[in-house]
Specification:
The relative contact order is 0.14. The chain has one domain (2-245). 89% of the residues lie in helices and 0% in strands. It is an all-alpha fold. The chain is globular, with a radius of gyration of 21 Å. Mean pLDDT is 86; it is low at 7-21.
């Protein structure tokens, strides 16, 4: 009688130990994702502030086709980088991630320069803290919710493409402040949802892989969440700027 009980107890203890090990592995994995992302955000900020402090550089970027080249590079890397991160070398994965962060820094710089020149530097910090709050809340919800968010993928993808087209059309043809306010508000709503979806997806990559995730998986997770964070920041800052102008 005692032998089966001992065997059952041993199996339970072994299962619990594996569960604790997986939870600790998941914690370390997600910590790696957020650490990479935080360093990328800090790097983007430093690049942006450096360029924004140099008026000649800002004019060179904002008043020439350079900004559109950088924008196209960011969009292209958004589609290409995940493939390179998982199928290329570790060095290539790092290169794609850090170049992506640097390009965002270049693109954001003229916007920061404009706010500084307008005496609205405080809006930059306000936008950052609002972004951190929205991102943190939605990422936490995506991590903890039992709801399966995988069904959101198609809708979010179509919404992002539609908003991207609307932003480009307004920037090139209409340059309407009201249209910019509406699209930025929609971008914030959509990317708040994207943040929750991505967080759950990144967590699922680990659990479905049995905990056997490597550094490149952490880079991919950071790449996805970083893009959402920066997009939220830009459009929250745009909303604050339009409201201040009104």
């Amino acid at each position: 009688m005692n032998e089966p009980r001992r065997q059952f107890g041993a199996r339970v203890a072994d299962t619990d130990a594996r569960g604790v090990a997986i939870d600790e592995g998941l914690r370390q994995y997600m910590l790696g994702v957020y650490n990479y992302m935080a360093v990328a955000v800090a790097g983007t900020g430093l690049i942006s502030m450096f360029i924004a402090s140099n008026q000649a550089l800002v004019i060179q970027i904002a008043a020439t086709p350079i900004k559109w080249v950088v924008f196209a590079g960011i969009i292209g890397m958004g589609f290409l980088a995940p493939r390179v991160i998982f199928s290329g070398s570790k060095a290539a994965a790092h290169a794609m991630f850090w170049i992506y962060a640097a390009l965002w820094g270049v693109l954001i710089a003229p916007m920061l320069f404009f706010f500084q020149q307008a005496g609205a530097a405080q809006d930059i910090y306000r936008a950052f803290f609002i972004t951190a709050s929205v991102f943190g809340g939605m990422s936490l919800w995506g991590y903890t919710t039992k709801k399966d968010l995988s069904g959101w993928a198609s809708f979010l993808f179509m919404a992002v493409i539609g908003l991207l087209v609307a932003i480009i059309v307004n920037a090139v043809f209409f340059q309407s402040g009201m249209a910019s306010l509406i699209t930025s508000s929609l971008v914030v709503l959509v990317f708040a949802a994207v943040t929750a979806y991505e967080t759950q997806m990144i967590k699922s990559l680990y659990t479905e892989g049995g905990g056997a995730m490597n550094e490149r998986a952490s880079i991919f997770g950071a790449f996805a969440l970083y893009g959402s964070f920066v997009t939220l920041f830009i459009h929250i800052l745009n909303i604050l700027g339009i409201m201040r102008g009104d």
